[in-house]
Amino acid sequence: MMTFWTQYQPTKVIFGAGETDNIGKHLSEAGYKQVLLIADPFMVQSGAAQRLVDHSDGIIVGVFDKVDPNPTVQNVDAAIKKIQEFKVDAVIGFGGGSVLDCSKAASAGYASQLTAEKLVTGSKITAAMPLICIPTTAGTGSEVTPVAIISWKEKDIKYPLSSPLLYAAIAIDDPRLVYSAPKRVIATPGVDVITHCLDALTSVKHTPISDRHALNGAKIAFDNLEKAVNDQDKKALDNMMLASLIAGLAFSQTGTTGSHACSYYLTSKYRVVHGEATAFTEDEWFRVNSKARPELNQMVQTIGFKDAEAVAVRLNEVKKNIGLRTTLEEINVPLSDLDTVAERTIQANNYINNIIQLNKEEIKQLLLKKSASSAAQS
Amino acid sequence: MMTFWTQYQPTKVIFGAGETDNIGKHLSEAGYKQVLLIADPFMVQSGAAQRLVDHSDGIIVGVFDKVDPNPTVQNVDAAIKKIQEFKVDAVIGFGGGSVLDCSKAASAGYASQLTAEKLVTGSKITAAMPLICIPTTAGTGSEVTPVAIISWKEKDIKYPLSSPLLYAAIAIDDPRLVYSAPKRVIATPGVDVITHCLDALTSVKHTPISDRHALNGAKIAFDNLEKAVNDQDKKALDNMMLASLIAGLAFSQTGTTGSHACSYYLTSKYRVVHGEATAFTEDEWFRVNSKARPELNQMVQTIGFKDAEAVAVRLNEVKKNIGLRTTLEEINVPLSDLDTVAERTIQANNYINNIIQLNKEEIKQLLLKKSASSAAQS
């Protein structure tokens, strides 16, 4: 018997409130001389991007902010062009998951001499520029994962690039960046932290190390998310940034599973924001998956839950407490479309990670539990 | 306020019983063509080194086994010479902590063009060859740390080399390698796993991530060490290899602290083996340190201990149950030499990591608790 597991996470993480004000020091210590900043347009408007430039000791030589919420091949190609134009030796991604993913794809596309279309149609990543990821939401975890999801909307392709070369060289987790975020920008990435952790626990690729990160991240998120959203409490926001990082350390090794596979169509067709969409079915996936991995019932006791069922119940409670929708009716998905939701779930690349492989009919049954009448009973 | 912490551990870990039989696949996947094996002499005698060579698909082109228990500058220089002689592109370290440390130093010395004497007198490491670390004891954790301790015996120097470049590219943790180890070779590295974890919890450099690894590693080691030593139970030995790895992930970030600082003189003067020497005072260090970090009393509750005191009591119990000595009289240290033990503790490089800085007199008082008369009372 030769079953084995691996652990690889080469990103240097720097964690601290206010730490982005030391960006110049961190860039020069890493030996970067000219760097392109790829920023969320909102971070440019708010002045946060300029503050980063001002603290870069002149090392940030250009800013690019043409990144859409689900980044496109056009976004990536435009970013690659900016890398060429400014002749930089490293790239900073500064934003939520979309901006970090676009930055990863651009740094790989540039160094591998591949267009974005080539990347999303499967051409092999052979190199990547050094990348510094600075998340401005507490939830993505993308700063420590080797994955970037890029959309080719004209062809209805949403492709998860994956390569060890996509790991950022440096991640800077600065909770101060989320202190003044609107509640909704705390809530949806925040609940995604929990789905990252529960997905990691129910992946066929789980390891003894990813399991502990996932339990730890879930515990911190369950303890802090409501306070972070509803009171915008700084300590709770610090903890959510930490939970987001730890969740990333977990699912960087395991990939995501059912809840994520099931979410993409809810986002593309019904415009449910990513975190709300993954959390929407996560409680049901965790219930089903814990039957396939019964030790989860004991494992969650180490973070204060009676069993896996108690985790599912608590997640649903948290969603309601932070203003997220929990029924199919609320997110406007008609029962007549559940067939397609189930089909798209099975087609998603990460569904094979899910510890139990439900068929289409079984996924439909799972989704039906999210109708208002079922939800009222549970 | 700009306090921050970092996390960096770039080694790819491969964990699995029997996995060293796939060494050829792992070496070729990493792109290595000619590799030198630096092996523990005992692994050469036992045939384990030859088995590794046989499974390397011809990639291991040379074997070097002149490594002493506390590796010397002469050992390192001889290993560097072998690297030159065989013109290899990577090095495997295959043994306990001593062999892994020697391999790290040789790979750095060769690539930085520095002799071992230069290395241990502080010349900067600027490069290192790719290194594969395969521990043959469940305890060192050195396969995932950036440190190598090398001795220059003629000058009474025992120097901890430290550089991010000393991280192995690949670590292969194969529990099968310890299945037939003698009890003592399970016991002393095994108890060192616990000291690595407790040291990490009481380091000024502890982080939220190292803390969880340390608690997790300690829990697994406390649950499995006695069974691993006394029954040589395979499942318990698998778990000890896992605990050793996790402890390494913790103290790779924090360094070691009081128990280790206090151990070196016990080893050099009184020939107390490393793990027995670090564990000898660890319970007392943990008692003292938990007063400086009182939250440890709550933290250890998450792994089933009432408080820090209960951890110290349990550690002492484990030591006795696996046949280790627990009093100054047993290890033949006269009370008249405690002054020197205390002095050497303070001089050790890692003592500054300890969360509370005891003075010489206070360390002597701590040591006195290890006299037979005190130990009987506690």
Q: State the order of secondary-structure elements of chain A, H for helix, E for strand.
A: EHEHHEHEHHEEEEHHHHHHHHHHH
Shape of chain A: globular
Task: Decide which structural class fits the backbone of chain A.
Answer: alpha/beta
Unreliable sequence segments of chain A: none
Q: What's the CATH topology label of the largest domain in chain A?
A: Dehydroquinate synthase-like, alpha domain
Please state roughly what percent of the residues of chain A sit in beta strands, choosing from under 5%, 5-15%, 15-25%, 25-35%, 35-45% or over 45%: 5-15%
Distance between the termini of chain A: 43 Å
Number of domains of chain A: 2
Describe this structure in words.
- The structure is a homodimer of 378-residue chains.
- By secondary structure, chain A is an alpha/beta fold.
- Chain A has 2 domains: 12-177, 3-Layer(aba) Sandwich (Rossmann fold); 182-377, Dehydroquinate synthase-like, alpha domain, CATH 1.20.1090.
- The first copy, chain A, is 51% helix and 13% strand.
- Chain A has helices spanning 23-29, 41-45, 48-54, 73-86, 97-112, 116-120, 183-201, 208-231, 234-254, 258-261, 263-270, 274-292, 296-299, 308-321, 338-347, 360-368, 372-377, and strands at residues 5-15, 35-39, 60-64, 90-95, 131-135, 147-152, 157-162, 170-173.
- In chain A, strands 1-8-5-4-2-3 form a 6-stranded parallel β-sheet, sandwiched between helices. A two-stranded antiparallel sheet of chain A has the order 6-7.
- Chain A is globular.
- Chains A and B meet through strand 1, helix 8 and helix 9 of A and strand 1, helix 8 and helix 9 of B.
